[in-house]
Amino acid sequence: MKNRCHYPIGTPGQKWTEKEVTEWRNQTQIQRSYQQDVVSKIQQLEHHWIVESYGALSYDTERYPLYVLKNSAWHPDKPTVLITGGVHGYETSGVQGALLFAAQHAADYQADFNLVIAPCVSPWGYETINRWNPNAVDPNRSFYQDSVSEEAALVMDMVAKLDGDILVHIDLHETTDTDESEFRPALAAREGLEYIEDNVPDGFYLVGNTEKPAAQFQSAIIAAVEKVTHIAPADTQGKIIGAEVVQKGVINYPLKRLHLCTSMTECEYSTTTEVYPDSPNVSTQQCNLAQVAAITGALDYLKSQD
Protein backbone atom coordinates (compact mmCIF):
# COMPACT_ATOMS: atom_id res chain seq x y z
CA MET A 1 0.00 0.00 0.00
CA LYS A 2 1.49 3.32 -1.04
CA ASN A 3 1.36 6.25 1.33
CA ARG A 4 -0.91 9.24 0.89
CA CYS A 5 -0.24 12.63 2.39
CA HIS A 6 -1.74 16.11 2.61
CA TYR A 7 0.42 19.01 1.44
CA PRO A 8 0.34 21.87 4.00
CA ILE A 9 -0.84 24.48 1.47
CA GLY A 10 -4.31 24.40 -0.05
CA THR A 11 -7.60 22.62 0.53
CA PRO A 12 -7.87 18.94 -0.47
CA GLY A 13 -9.80 18.54 -3.69
CA GLN A 14 -9.52 22.20 -4.70
CA LYS A 15 -7.08 23.75 -7.15
CA TRP A 16 -4.89 26.55 -5.89
CA THR A 17 -5.92 30.15 -6.41
CA GLU A 18 -3.55 33.11 -6.35
CA LYS A 19 -3.91 33.06 -2.55
CA GLU A 20 -2.30 29.60 -2.31
CA VAL A 21 0.34 30.46 -4.91
CA THR A 22 1.31 33.51 -2.85
CA GLU A 23 1.40 31.42 0.32
CA TRP A 24 3.63 28.89 -1.41
CA ARG A 25 5.94 31.57 -2.81
CA ASN A 26 6.25 33.28 0.58
CA GLN A 27 7.59 30.10 2.18
CA THR A 28 10.44 29.80 -0.35
CA GLN A 29 13.88 31.05 0.65
CA ILE A 30 17.09 31.96 -1.16
CA GLN A 31 19.49 29.13 -0.33
CA ARG A 32 22.41 29.69 -2.70
CA SER A 33 23.79 32.27 -5.11
CA TYR A 34 23.21 32.16 -8.87
CA GLN A 35 25.71 34.99 -9.31
CA GLN A 36 28.42 33.18 -7.36
CA ASP A 37 27.78 29.60 -8.49
CA VAL A 38 26.86 30.19 -12.12
CA VAL A 39 27.44 33.70 -13.46
CA SER A 40 31.00 33.87 -12.14
CA LYS A 41 31.83 30.62 -13.95
CA ILE A 42 30.25 31.89 -17.16
CA GLN A 43 32.37 35.03 -16.94
CA GLN A 44 35.51 32.90 -16.68
CA LEU A 45 34.66 31.37 -20.07
CA GLU A 46 34.44 34.68 -21.95
CA HIS A 47 37.90 34.26 -23.51
CA HIS A 48 36.91 30.93 -25.08
CA TRP A 49 33.20 31.40 -25.81
CA ILE A 50 30.86 34.02 -27.17
CA VAL A 51 28.80 34.86 -24.07
CA GLU A 52 25.47 36.56 -24.74
CA SER A 53 22.60 37.63 -22.52
CA TYR A 54 19.25 36.59 -23.95
CA GLY A 55 17.16 38.45 -21.38
CA ALA A 56 16.50 38.55 -17.67
CA LEU A 57 13.72 37.33 -15.41
CA SER A 58 11.30 40.07 -14.41
CA TYR A 59 11.25 38.82 -10.81
CA ASP A 60 14.61 40.60 -10.42
CA THR A 61 16.34 41.62 -13.64
CA GLU A 62 19.61 42.53 -11.92
CA ARG A 63 19.80 39.29 -9.99
CA TYR A 64 18.61 36.96 -12.76
CA PRO A 65 20.20 37.74 -16.14
CA LEU A 66 20.10 34.80 -18.55
CA TYR A 67 23.16 33.70 -20.51
CA VAL A 68 23.95 31.50 -23.47
CA LEU A 69 27.39 30.31 -24.59
CA LYS A 70 28.19 29.88 -28.27
CA ASN A 71 31.45 28.63 -29.70
CA SER A 72 33.37 31.26 -31.65
CA ALA A 73 34.06 28.94 -34.62
CA TRP A 74 30.42 29.11 -35.69
CA HIS A 75 29.61 28.03 -39.23
CA PRO A 76 26.09 27.60 -40.69
CA ASP A 77 27.15 24.43 -42.52
CA LYS A 78 28.02 22.62 -39.29
CA PRO A 79 25.34 20.77 -37.29
CA THR A 80 24.14 22.69 -34.25
CA VAL A 81 23.97 21.15 -30.79
CA LEU A 82 21.77 22.71 -28.10
CA ILE A 83 22.55 21.94 -24.45
CA THR A 84 20.25 23.19 -21.71
CA GLY A 85 20.63 22.92 -17.95
CA GLY A 86 18.70 24.15 -14.95
CA VAL A 87 15.28 24.14 -16.59
CA HIS A 88 14.35 22.83 -13.17
CA GLY A 89 16.61 25.08 -11.14
CA TYR A 90 16.99 22.72 -8.20
CA GLU A 91 18.61 20.02 -10.35
CA THR A 92 22.16 21.09 -9.64
CA SER A 93 24.26 18.77 -11.77
CA GLY A 94 22.38 19.88 -14.87
CA VAL A 95 23.72 23.40 -14.34
CA GLN A 96 27.18 22.48 -13.14
CA GLY A 97 27.57 19.65 -15.66
CA ALA A 98 26.85 22.04 -18.53
CA LEU A 99 29.43 24.48 -17.21
CA LEU A 100 31.99 21.71 -16.68
CA PHE A 101 31.54 20.52 -20.26
CA ALA A 102 31.95 24.07 -21.54
CA ALA A 103 35.12 24.62 -19.51
CA GLN A 104 36.92 21.30 -19.98
CA HIS A 105 35.52 19.28 -22.89
CA ALA A 106 33.84 21.46 -25.50
CA ALA A 107 37.10 22.28 -27.28
CA ASP A 108 37.21 18.67 -28.51
CA TYR A 109 33.95 19.19 -30.44
CA GLN A 110 33.98 22.77 -31.68
CA ALA A 111 35.52 21.82 -35.03
CA ASP A 112 32.60 19.51 -35.75
CA PHE A 113 29.59 21.25 -34.21
CA ASN A 114 28.09 24.62 -33.47
CA LEU A 115 27.61 24.44 -29.71
CA VAL A 116 24.92 26.41 -27.89
CA ILE A 117 24.79 26.08 -24.10
CA ALA A 118 22.17 27.66 -21.84
CA PRO A 119 23.51 26.42 -18.50
CA CYS A 120 20.81 27.75 -16.17
CA VAL A 121 17.39 28.40 -17.66
CA SER A 122 15.71 28.93 -14.26
CA PRO A 123 18.02 30.92 -11.93
CA TRP A 124 15.26 31.73 -9.41
CA GLY A 125 14.65 28.00 -9.13
CA TYR A 126 18.40 27.47 -8.76
CA GLU A 127 18.64 29.88 -5.84
CA THR A 128 15.54 28.63 -4.03
CA ILE A 129 16.26 24.97 -4.94
CA ASN A 130 12.89 24.70 -6.57
CA ARG A 131 11.23 22.91 -9.46
CA TRP A 132 8.75 25.71 -10.20
CA ASN A 133 9.13 29.41 -10.90
CA PRO A 134 7.71 32.01 -8.45
CA ASN A 135 4.26 31.66 -9.99
CA ALA A 136 4.12 27.92 -9.17
CA VAL A 137 4.57 27.14 -12.88
CA ASP A 138 6.78 24.27 -14.03
CA PRO A 139 9.01 25.62 -16.82
CA ASN A 140 9.51 22.10 -18.15
CA ARG A 141 5.81 21.77 -18.90
CA SER A 142 5.63 25.20 -20.52
CA PHE A 143 7.39 25.02 -23.89
CA TYR A 144 4.56 26.22 -26.09
CA GLN A 145 3.60 29.40 -27.92
CA ASP A 146 2.76 32.32 -25.62
CA SER A 147 4.13 30.38 -22.67
CA VAL A 148 3.17 31.47 -19.18
CA SER A 149 6.73 30.68 -18.07
CA GLU A 150 9.24 33.48 -18.66
CA GLU A 151 12.03 30.94 -18.40
CA ALA A 152 10.64 28.85 -21.25
CA ALA A 153 9.58 31.79 -23.40
CA LEU A 154 12.96 33.52 -23.23
CA VAL A 155 15.04 30.46 -24.08
CA MET A 156 12.67 29.52 -26.90
CA ASP A 157 13.03 33.01 -28.38
CA MET A 158 16.82 32.75 -28.17
CA VAL A 159 16.84 29.37 -29.92
CA ALA A 160 14.46 30.56 -32.64
CA LYS A 161 16.95 33.28 -33.57
CA LEU A 162 19.91 30.91 -34.03
CA ASP A 163 21.49 30.69 -37.47
CA GLY A 164 20.78 27.16 -38.69
CA ASP A 165 18.70 24.19 -37.62
CA ILE A 166 19.26 22.24 -34.41
CA LEU A 167 20.42 18.65 -35.00
CA VAL A 168 20.51 17.54 -31.37
CA HIS A 169 19.17 18.84 -28.06
CA ILE A 170 20.49 17.51 -24.75
CA ASP A 171 18.56 18.68 -21.69
CA LEU A 172 20.30 18.00 -18.38
CA HIS A 173 18.11 17.02 -15.40
CA GLU A 174 18.08 15.13 -12.10
CA THR A 175 15.53 12.93 -10.37
CA THR A 176 15.89 13.48 -6.63
CA ASP A 177 14.35 12.16 -3.45
CA THR A 178 12.68 15.55 -3.02
CA ASP A 179 10.59 14.79 -6.09
CA GLU A 180 8.56 12.54 -3.79
CA SER A 181 8.98 14.40 -0.50
CA GLU A 182 8.13 17.87 -1.85
CA PHE A 183 7.56 18.48 -5.54
CA ARG A 184 5.01 15.82 -6.53
CA PRO A 185 2.96 16.42 -3.35
CA ALA A 186 2.99 20.15 -4.15
CA LEU A 187 1.89 19.44 -7.73
CA ALA A 188 -1.01 17.29 -6.54
CA ALA A 189 -2.07 19.98 -4.09
CA ARG A 190 -1.86 22.70 -6.75
CA GLU A 191 -4.14 20.68 -9.02
CA GLY A 192 -6.55 19.67 -6.25
CA LEU A 193 -5.63 16.00 -6.56
CA GLU A 194 -4.72 13.32 -4.06
CA TYR A 195 -1.00 12.58 -3.91
CA ILE A 196 -0.04 8.91 -3.98
CA GLU A 197 3.60 8.12 -3.28
CA ASP A 198 5.71 6.65 -6.08
CA ASN A 199 9.28 5.38 -6.28
CA VAL A 200 12.41 7.35 -7.15
CA PRO A 201 14.59 5.45 -9.67
CA ASP A 202 17.94 4.44 -8.20
CA GLY A 203 20.36 5.55 -10.89
CA PHE A 204 20.76 7.39 -14.17
CA TYR A 205 18.23 7.15 -16.99
CA LEU A 206 17.24 8.96 -20.19
CA VAL A 207 13.98 10.27 -21.59
CA GLY A 208 13.78 10.08 -25.37
CA ASN A 209 11.17 11.22 -27.86
CA THR A 210 8.27 8.87 -28.58
CA GLU A 211 8.06 10.23 -32.14
CA LYS A 212 11.83 10.12 -32.78
CA PRO A 213 13.23 7.59 -30.31
CA ALA A 214 16.77 7.38 -31.82
CA ALA A 215 17.50 4.11 -30.02
CA GLN A 216 21.16 3.80 -31.00
CA PHE A 217 21.82 7.41 -29.99
CA GLN A 218 20.29 6.80 -26.55
CA SER A 219 22.20 3.54 -26.18
CA ALA A 220 25.51 5.29 -26.88
CA ILE A 221 24.79 7.81 -24.14
CA ILE A 222 23.93 5.10 -21.62
CA ALA A 223 27.18 3.28 -22.45
CA ALA A 224 29.19 6.45 -21.84
CA VAL A 225 27.44 7.33 -18.58
CA GLU A 226 27.71 3.79 -17.24
CA LYS A 227 31.45 4.35 -16.93
CA VAL A 228 30.72 7.09 -14.40
CA THR A 229 27.61 6.05 -12.47
CA HIS A 230 25.07 3.25 -12.27
CA ILE A 231 22.05 3.01 -14.55
CA ALA A 232 18.55 2.85 -13.07
CA PRO A 233 16.93 -0.58 -13.38
CA ALA A 234 13.33 -1.05 -14.40
CA ASP A 235 10.86 -1.62 -11.59
CA THR A 236 8.90 -4.85 -11.15
CA GLN A 237 6.51 -3.77 -13.91
CA GLY A 238 9.29 -3.03 -16.38
CA LYS A 239 8.89 0.72 -15.97
CA ILE A 240 10.73 3.82 -14.77
CA ILE A 241 8.55 6.62 -13.32
CA GLY A 242 5.52 4.93 -14.84
CA ALA A 243 6.88 4.72 -18.40
CA GLU A 244 7.88 1.53 -20.16
CA VAL A 245 11.61 0.89 -20.32
CA VAL A 246 12.32 0.52 -24.05
CA GLN A 247 15.98 -0.38 -23.57
CA LYS A 248 18.44 -0.30 -20.70
CA GLY A 249 18.02 2.99 -18.85
CA VAL A 250 15.76 4.58 -21.49
CA ILE A 251 12.11 5.60 -21.51
CA ASN A 252 10.28 7.70 -24.09
CA TYR A 253 7.81 10.56 -23.63
CA PRO A 254 5.53 12.38 -26.10
CA LEU A 255 7.57 15.57 -25.88
CA LYS A 256 5.29 17.90 -27.82
CA ARG A 257 2.15 16.86 -25.98
CA LEU A 258 3.82 17.41 -22.60
CA HIS A 259 5.46 20.69 -23.69
CA LEU A 260 8.87 19.56 -22.46
CA CYS A 261 12.04 21.52 -23.08
CA THR A 262 13.31 19.07 -25.69
CA SER A 263 10.17 19.69 -27.75
CA MET A 264 11.09 23.28 -28.58
CA THR A 265 12.78 22.34 -31.89
CA GLU A 266 12.23 19.73 -34.59
CA CYS A 267 15.68 18.23 -33.99
CA GLU A 268 16.47 14.70 -35.12
CA TYR A 269 18.11 13.69 -31.85
CA SER A 270 16.96 14.67 -28.40
CA THR A 271 17.44 13.30 -24.92
CA THR A 272 16.74 14.35 -21.37
CA THR A 273 19.21 13.11 -18.80
CA GLU A 274 18.13 12.13 -15.29
CA VAL A 275 20.93 11.85 -12.76
CA TYR A 276 20.22 10.46 -9.27
CA PRO A 277 22.23 12.59 -6.81
CA ASP A 278 20.78 11.09 -3.62
CA SER A 279 22.36 7.67 -4.04
CA PRO A 280 24.86 6.82 -1.29
CA ASN A 281 27.07 5.42 -4.04
CA VAL A 282 27.67 8.70 -5.92
CA SER A 283 29.33 12.02 -5.16
CA THR A 284 28.48 15.52 -6.37
CA GLN A 285 31.42 15.33 -8.75
CA GLN A 286 30.22 12.01 -10.15
CA CYS A 287 26.84 13.56 -10.88
CA ASN A 288 28.46 16.43 -12.75
CA LEU A 289 30.68 14.01 -14.64
CA ALA A 290 27.68 11.86 -15.55
CA GLN A 291 26.12 14.89 -17.23
CA VAL A 292 29.37 15.54 -19.09
CA ALA A 293 29.55 11.88 -20.13
CA ALA A 294 26.01 12.11 -21.50
CA ILE A 295 27.00 15.07 -23.67
CA THR A 296 30.28 13.61 -24.89
CA GLY A 297 28.68 10.21 -25.45
CA ALA A 298 26.02 11.85 -27.61
CA LEU A 299 28.52 13.90 -29.61
CA ASP A 300 30.92 10.99 -30.08
CA TYR A 301 28.04 8.96 -31.47
CA LEU A 302 27.10 11.71 -33.92
CA LYS A 303 30.71 12.07 -35.04
CA SER A 304 30.85 8.32 -35.69
CA GLN A 305 27.88 8.63 -38.07
CA ASP A 306 29.75 10.88 -40.52
Automatic annotation (TrEMBL):
Pfam families for the chain: Peptidase_M14 (PF00246)
Domain of life from the UniProt record: Bacteria
Classification via Gene3D superfamilies: Zn peptidases (3.40.630.10)
Boundaries of every Peptidase M14 domain copy: 30-306
Family the entry assigns: Belongs to the peptidase M14 family.
Protein name: Peptidase M14 domain-containing protein
